[in-house]
Amino acid sequence: MSIQSEVRLMKKDAPFMAASSLEKRNNALRKIKENLIANAEEIFEANKKDMEAAEENKIAPSVMKRLKFDQGKLDDVCAGIDQLVSLPDPLGKITLARTLDDGLNLYRVTCPIGIIGVIFEARPDALVQISTLCIKSGNCAVLKGGKETAETNRTLFNIIHESIVEAGLPERALLQAQQHSEIDELLLCHDCVDLLIPRGSNAFVQYIMNNTKIPVMGHADGLCHIYVDSEADFEKAIPVIIDAKTQYTAACNAVETLLINRNIAKEFLPMAAKALSDAGVKLFATEEAAEIIRENGTEVKSVDEQDFKEYLDMAISIKLVGNVDEAIDHINRYGSHHTDSIITENNEAGKKFMNMVDSAGVYWNCSTRFADGFRYGFGAEVGISTGKIHARGPVGLEGLVTYKYKLFGKGHIVGDYASGKKHFKFKDI
To answer: How far apart are CA 110 and CA 194, in angstroms?
Structure first.
C-alpha cells in the first residue's frame, strides 16, 4: 500500500487518537519503555548491523556518533519517557473562557495538530523521542528516519507500534516510511498531513519547503555563537566554550563561532586557543585573531568571516569584535537564529544581548548545548524550530498542540445581535 493510501487511513484514526484519554496515552508510553528494555539485545544487534554497514561505507565520524544506539542511549530515551509520563496533559487546557452573552459561553481549548510527518536524520534515539512526544500530545505521526540506521529504526518502530496497540491506541496512530522515494509521496499528502518537521541539512530542509504545500516547521542550520565580552569572567568562559564545542560536536547546538571582545583579546584569546587546541579542536580565525593565536604558538588557519560555517566537528571559527553591539550585528547577520550565548559580568551588556540577538535561544554565561527539549524539561523534543510562527526553539509538547474554539449556546442567533435586539457582554469567566 502506498504512503498516500496509508495516510488517508490514518486520517480516519486521527480523531480517535485526539480523543484518547491521558491514562491511555501514558499507559502506552509505559508499555513502550517496558518493551524497549525487554528487547534491548534485539535493538543493539540491529544497531550493530547499521554501524558495520556505516563503517564499510566510510560514513563521516561526526555522523557515526549519531548512529550508535547503546545502553547509554537506551537509558536516555527511557528517562525521556519517564519525564513525558510525569508531565501534565497538553490537551484540553482552557486558555480562554468568556461569556459572550447570557448562556453563550466561548472557550479556547488545546487540541492535537493532527497528522505530523517527521523526516529526521540518522539518529535512532530521535525515532523514540519523536514517536513518544506525538503519542503524549495525541497526534498521529508518519516517521522517516535516515537510511544509515534502517535496521535499528525498523526494530524500534516495531516495538513502539506493538506497544501502542497493546495499550489500546489506534493501530494507525504511527506509520513508518522506510523508502527514500516515500518522502516525495509524503510531500504530496497536503490533504491529510497537517505539519511536516524535517531535520537535516540546509539543502534537505529547503528541498522539503520547496516541494510541498504542507506547512513546514524546523531549522536548517545550527550556526551557534558564543560572544566573550570585555567584562567576562575567564574562569567561567573557558569551560563554557570547551563544553559548547566538544561535549557533542555533531549536535546542532554545538558552538561553531567564537566572538571575542578586542579589549581582552591579547589576554584571553591565547588562553582560549590553547584550551581548544589541547581539546583537539582545529582553529580557523580572521587574520587579526590568527596573528594573536600564532604569536602564542597555537596552530590556526586564517579565513574570512564569510567562510565561517557549521562544522559539526572538532573545529571552530574565531573573530574579534569591538563591543557587544558588533557581536550582536555579526550574529544576526551570519547566524542561523538557533542558539547564541554571551559570557559577561556586565548586566547592561548581558541584557542588551538577550534582548537584541534574534535567535530561538539566547543564553547568558552558559553553554549553547543546553538548547535541548530534554534539558528544558519538555521530555525531549521533536525538533528545534528557528521560525517564529507557532513554535520556536526545542519543540516539545506545547509545540505539538494547537487549539480550537468551543462555543456553547442555547439557541442563540447572530440576527438578534445584528438587529440590536441583543447586545454582547464579553465577560471573562
So the answer is: 16
